[in-house]
Amino acid sequence: MKISYRHLMVRVKDLDVSLAFYKRLGLIERHRTESEAGRYTNVFLCPPDQADGHADLELTYNWDGDDALPNDSRHFGHIAYRVEDIYALCQELMDAGITINRPPRDGHMAFVRSPDNISIELLQMGESKPPQEPWASMGNTGHW
Amino acid sequence: MKISYRHLMVRVKDLDVSLAFYKRLGLIERHRTESEAGRYTNVFLCPPDQADGHADLELTYNWDGDDALPNDSRHFGHIAYRVEDIYALCQELMDAGITINRPPRDGHMAFVRSPDNISIELLQMGESKPPQEPWASMGNTGHW
Question: A7-62 — its CATH code?
Answer without folding.
Answer: 3.10.180.10
